[in-house]
Amino acid sequence: MKSKIADPSLAKNGAKQYEWAYNHMPILAKTIENALKKSNFNGAPIAVCLHVTKETSALVMGLKKMGADVYLAAANPLSTQNDVAAYLDSEGVYVFAWRGENSREYQDCIRQILRGKPEVVMDDGCDAHATIHDEKEFKSLNPRGGTEETTTGVIRLKALEKSGKLRYPVIAVNNAQTKHLFDNRYGTGQSTFDGILRATSLLMAGKNVVVCGYGWVGRGIATRSRGFGALTTVVEVDPVRALEARMDGFDVMPMSESAKIGDFFITATGQTHVIRTEHIKSMKEGAILVNAGHFDVEIDVKGLDEIAKSVREVRPNVDEYALLNGKKVYLIGKGRIANLVAAEGHPPEVMSMSFSNQLLSAVRIYEKGKTMEKKTIDVPKDIDDQVARNALEAMGIKIDEPTKEQLKYGESWQL
Ligand SMILES: NC(=O)c1ccc[n+]([C@@H]2O[C@H](COP(=O)([O-])OP(=O)(O)OC[C@H]3O[C@@H](n4cnc5c(N)ncnc54)[C@H](O)[C@@H]3O)[C@@H](O)[C@H]2O)c1
Q1: Tell me: the pLDDT tens digits for 82-121?
Q2: Is the pLDDT score of 293 beyond 80?
Q3: In what order do the strands lie in the sheet with 318-323?
Q4: Integer Cα distance of 75 and 48 in angstroms
Q5: Which mutation among 294, 332, 354, 358 tests ligand 1's pocket best, with the greatest number of atoms within 8 A of CB?
């Protein structure tokens, strides 16, 4: 099988990107070093459908070091870093990814990695798992199991499991505490603004920022927004999370009201059409629309097209929509995951934890998948704890152990 990438001559630059990421991912380096002592993939094919970033190259090279034959496709048509794809190809990974794939090419790339007959399927958003379960060509594919990186992917897998059709166990990496508490919150919190600032080069201080969704991603974004000195409003549908947002010191109001005041709107819900044309029509001149959720469904981009007289790209990753009502609004990265389209995704330090969970979960699936229930399974606690311990060690932080007396006290009902 031959890779399909944008430009193999970018490999040298991709190697530098890999080196930079790897050198800032000591937790992953330690996880690989420890895993190598006990486990090996023995040449097994592994399909990886993740954003093709420098951080992912550190994970993929780790899988290779552990003896896997890796097939890589992107988890989003606009998130691939072409130099990283070229570097991985030069290292013998089968890569099917380039920035700017159209929808058909994106799906074809996923099919290509599945044609490698993977024993383990690592996914971000569930498009690879869905393809295996949906398409005739893959009906006989029988992997030992898989992993899933993100909230939206876990929701889709749970729906697949509920329909009784899930054919293999999948470890929900997103559900590890050392994943969503850090990656979703601090990773997306920072990198979403990295994307917004690279795309717009505008000042955040004093602006009105509306954050839709106060889950792990939303609260990370809202906190960083406040850090910039922006007046931050949260939109929610969950009463408990709305209350949390309010007591964390944010304004909370419905989308229809916040639409009138926002300078920036950032969606992070995993839901469809959270910002609709009725909201966009009431927005201020120059409002900027950003999506940080996994799929490009949170802002109604098709509806936006329909209420616009004209659309033009005014800066890389910024489209200006001249609306029929005379106002202009701006859309970042075509409404796709802004931190990966307009920036480089999460910083390596945080992906070091997420990908340690991915690697250890892939090992668990490879070694025990055939005996595991065909369900969406939480990351085993021993893996989660190990990643946290490795992270603390990498930061030079020591913690206490409970004494024997405390352990006994904690297990007793008598005082
Ligand atoms: N950009 C990234 O790199 C990145 C990283 C991690 C996760 N994600 C994605 O971000 C999205 C959110 O992830 P999460 O972990 O925060 O999920 P979450 O389930 O913790 O939070 C989502 C929140 O959105 C709220 N919500 C749902 N519908 C809403 C609506 N119509 N209006 C307002 N709020 C609504 C929910 O009540 C919930 O509180 C998912 O699509 C996830 O896959 C993106």
Answers
A1: 999 999 999 999 999 999 999 999 999 999 999 999 999 9
A2: yes
A3: 251-252, 231-235, 208-212, 264-267, 287-291, 328-332, 318-323, 308-315
A4: 9
A5: 294
Whether residue 270 has its Cβ less than 6 Å from ligand 1: yes
User: Residues 23, 98: one domain?
Assistant: yes
Q: How many structural domains comprise the chain?
A: 2
359 with 330, same domain: the answer is no
What's the domain range around 210?
189-341
- Overall pTM surpassing 0.85 (yes/no): yes
Same domain for 273 and 134 = no
Tokens of 128: 């690879």
Q: Are residues 224 and 249 in the same domain?
A: yes
- Residue 373 maps to a domain: yes
Digit-coded pLDDT (tens) for 4-48: 999 999 999 999 999 999 999 999 999 999 999 999 999 999 999
Report the CATH number that the domain containing residue 268 is assigned in CATH: 3.40.50.720
Contact (Cβ atoms closer than 8 angstroms) between residue 351 and residue 124: no
356 lines ligand 1 (CB under 6 A): no
DSSP string covering 205-268, please?
TT-EEEEE--SHHHHHHHHHHHHTT-EEEEE-S-HHHHHHHHHTT-EE--HHHHHHH-SEEEE-
Q: Is residue 411 part of a domain?
A: no
Cα dihedral across residues 54, 56, 62, 65: positive or negative: negative
